[in-house]
Amino acid sequence: MPLFGTTATPPDASPGPFVRKWTDGFGSLATRCLQVVIVLVVAIGVVYAAATLSVVTIPVLLALIIASAMHPVVSWLRRHKVPSVLATLAVLLGVLVVLGLVGWLIVVAVISQWPDLQKSALRGFGQLQDFAAHLPFSISDSQVDEAVQGVQGFLTSSQFGSGALAGASATANFLTGLVLMIVVLFFFLKDGPAIWEFLLRPFTGARYERARRVGDRVVHTLGGYVRGTASVAAVDAVGIGVGLAIVGVPLALPLAVVVFITAFIPIVGATAAGILAALVALVANGPVAALIVVGIVVLVNQLEGNLLQPVLMGRTLKLHGLVILIGLTAGTVLAGITGAIISVPLLAAAWGAVQVWDGPDEPARPWRQKRPETAERR
Questions:
Q1: pTM score
Q2: Residue 344 pLDDT class (50, 70, 90 cuts)
Q3: Residues contacting 357, CB < 8 A, separation 6+
Q4: 4, 15, 124, 239: which could join 300 in a potential S-S bond, CB 3.0 to 4.6 Å?
Q5: Gap between the Cα atoms of 190 and 188, Å rounded
Q6: Distance (Å, rounded) from C-alpha 37 to C-alpha 29?
Q7: Backbone angles phi, psi at 227, to 5 degrees
């Protein structure tokens, strides 16, 4: 028995061989890899489920983005003693009127100017045939006829018929998603804060405060992105549309609307709209007009990149170009054009959530800047 004041020798507490295998360097690496694999499997499962249920997920995400952009308007109406339901209905009707007006402008303008564009296209096709006749290699009329017959055969084939059926199914899905988006948007506009508070019921203390910060930042980021992008898109559409009208390009109004829509797709949207406008000008007005249109598009894009984006967007979208490009690609693969439009604001919202994870101005620990980031290290 040990004497008073002495300390007994502790028993051997060294870990067993199985524990040592998981506590050494290689075991820690294996544990970390297993954690990464589990996280990736869960993430892939979530993405797969969202892609499978795209008829539900995409309308809900669109409603969330639009509601975030319109939240200040609803709050302003409520502060001026407008009943909640009336304020919500007024904003919802305003959004639907704007969306309907955009579609109506495209349809009406295309229908009214389509005959002129057809005549210009036929004239351009004749000029193309004359140009092909003077090429170093010959393209016979029989080869042109075979190409035309091939197109006609595709239009009358079963493959085209199955494509038409797929188009009808896509139309039905679009209408279903549109109705769902309108309903969800109404409730987001009316009860958005209450819905978020309901979802936060399991959290208390610091976790509740973190969830509140993240929610506020996500709404602020999404709303700022949509409002800023819409302002930039409106300026782009007016500038390019006026330029097309001055040059005399047909379908100037629908092309301006296309410019407005594609402006919501960073990096590639402006390029796609410019190519489309230049092709229409080439077919309808000739190569000189097409070059003028290219110059107009480049000028407007330079104005946007150097002036409008920094002033109107501010710090809303602070993502590296490579991140945006990867997000656009992933969104396009998963959900087509709609995925390309909503992928970037969702990435910006996720990055905004990371920036306030540990405090109002304190990013999550792994994403804090620990050293100066330079382009070159020696």
A1: 0.70
A2: confident
A3: 210, 213, 214, 363, 364, 367
A4: 239
A5: 6
A6: 12
A7: -65, -45
